[in-house]
Write a structure and sequence with these properties.
Blueprint lengths: L2 H18 L4 H21 L3 H25 L9 H29 L2 H22 L11 H8 L4 H19 L2 H5 L5 H25 L4 H21 L3 H29 L4 H29 L2 H21 L7
Helix pairs in contact: 1-3, 1-12, 2-3, 2-5, 3-12, 4-5, 4-9, 4-11, 6-12, 7-11, 7-12, 7-13, 9-11, 10-11, 10-13, 11-12, 12-13
Length: 334
């Protein structure tokens, strides 16, 4: 249920941008949000695992396309010069949803039912659909994305290195964060874990907002520093059993991860040159692949070796990613 939506999200992130052609992006947003509403409602009422899995796969496809369009069109909705800030706001929402979804879902599953969590998603999608219908202007595409654009952007200086760094770091994150609840259960109760995950989310949102103010001046060094902190916090969470040290490490994890999607997104924008939608689609493809492969690989490691080994391997993957970033030669990023 975690891996399959990630795989389909990765595929749709690239394929959908080509298939959309010259379709108005506002119409696409409304259709995709409607699909999110439908799949969430179906998941809440699914009578069998098969129907639940199909609804989650369709959900992943919609999210992959939606996320690509959101990051690619952010700058078009604001004045010139406010593009990075607009991207930061959108990715702040993504970060908030990602890190708070787990504690909210955990709480609802423990105290009500997992179907209630999906029902809440359906309600949120319905509200979002109404807001988009009233607030979004027409968004005709600047340029229809073609398959050759995906190949051209890969040849841009530093772009492939940025993708590889993001894949390794985010893959290491999802290989570990997917199993954060069982990892913390040896120290904390389920209610305490829900509180910790909320703190994690708040730390991430604050970090994202702060990084937005400095990202243009310290992009490479700031991103590298955040990845190092992420690696440190994953290791601390894995091997330390002291309550307060684990809390400290977990808050650092939230701070570091919260700003990384923004950093990677800006890296992609700077190295993609004039291929923003194509670059964004490949970036979202990498994120969805990292979710799918990271969580699935993490599950294999947990089953065969244990949680500590999974966390250490995830940390090593992220560390290799920062080495790629530091060694990358590109005049487009500082």
């Amino acid at each position: 249920m975690v891996g399959a939506p990630g795989v389909l999200g990765a595929i749709s992130a690239c394929c959908s941008m080509i298939a959309l052609g010259n379709m108005d992006r506002r119409t696409v947003f409304l259709v995709l949000t409607g699909l999110l509403l439908l799949t969430s409602a179906t998941s809440a009422c699914a009578p069998t695992f098969g129907i639940l899995l199909v609804s989650r796969i369709l959900f992943g496809m919609a999210v992959g396309c939606f996320w690509t369009l959101a990051t690619a069109t952010a700058a078009r909705l604001v004045g010139r010069g406010d593009g990075p800030r607009a991207t930061a706001i959108i990715l702040g929402g993504v970060t908030l949803a990602t890190v708070l979804g787990v504690p909210i879902g955990t709480y609802l599953a423990a105290h009500v039912s997992w179907r209630t969590a999906f029902g809440c998603m359906a309600v949120a999608s319905a509200l979002t659909l109404c807001m988009q219908a009233f607030l979004l202007p027409r968004l005709p595409p600047v340029k229809a994305v073609q398959f050759k654009d995906l190949l051209l952007v890969l040849r841009e200086e530093g772009f492939a290195f940025c993708l590889l760094t993001a894949a390794l770091v985010l893959g290491g994150h999802y290989a570990t964060y997917t199993f954060i609840t069982p990892a913390l259960q040896s120290i904390f109760s389920l209610d305490e874990i829900s509180v910790l995950l909320c703190v994690f989310g708040v730390a991430g949102v604050v970090s994202n907002a702060i990084m937005a103010a400095f990202i243009n001046r310290h992009l490479r060094s700031g991103t590298a520093a955040l990845i190092v902190v992420l690696v440190f916090s994953i290791v601390v969470t894995a091997i330390v059993k002291s309550n307060w040290i684990v809390v400290f490490g977990f808050v650092l994890w939230g701070i570091s991860y919260g700003a990384l999607p923004l950093c990677f997104s800006v890296l992609i924008q700077k190295t993609a040159a004039g291929h923003q939608e194509a670059g964004s689609s490949l970036f979202i493809c990498v994120i969805q692949t990292a979710i799918a492969i990271g969580s699935s690989f993490g599950g294999v490691i947990v089953d065969n070796f244990g949680l500590v080994d999974d966390f250490l391997i995830g940390a090593v993957g992220a560390l290799i990613g920062v080495l790629f970033l530091v060694s990358m030669k590109s005049a487009k990023i500082s």
